[in-house]
Here is the input.
Amino acid sequence: QKEVEQNSGPLSVPEGAIASLNCTYSDRGSQSFFWYRQYSGKSPELIMSIYSNGDKEDGRFTAQLNKASQYVSLLIRDSQPSDSATYLCAVIKAAGNKLTFGGGTRVLVKP
Amino acid sequence: NAGVMQNPRHLVRRRGQEARLRCSPMKGHSHVYWYRQLPEEGLKFMVYLQKENIIDESGMPKERFSAEFPKEGPSILRIQQVVRGDSAAYFCASSREGRSTDTQYFGPGTRLTVL
Here is the structure.
């Protein structure tokens, strides 16, 4: 079992729709969770961070964390073609501060 | 406000040569992390350093790879006797402190190609 799992996609959504991305993790003691966006050939860029159960909203993005289910998700509202990228879920385990990444979900927003 | 800087952005080496990758953290950041992204694979942690100290090198290959973050100057990831399997994008990230809640900001990466 991978430490952080994501559906590789591609997740195809029409412009203006909601994109829903999911991520599960195996270490129950994980305490910090991040969503990064990576355009092809570029470096990861932080979208959201979340540390406690519940929802966290920032503009068109909402992160949801459920530690009991070891599940974190990202919603992108009013998807735009510029949102087309690979979205990386990353987790920091209980001990340490290194990021453990999932394989990423590729999102394609079609005009 | 300059972000994380990495150079070179592209590096081509022949098998058996040495590769030196440099990373300057964001201003005010004293924690540096190196990650590697192999073609069609995810990002993998390699090493975490503070000034003059290696804190966690659990992701570093046992041979040929080394890293340092001297008191003055950038952090350096060194790969000796490169092989084709070392071809990858190498990203450096930095954070202000070493807490698990600190955001790690990534540099543009160095794309290493081994011929």
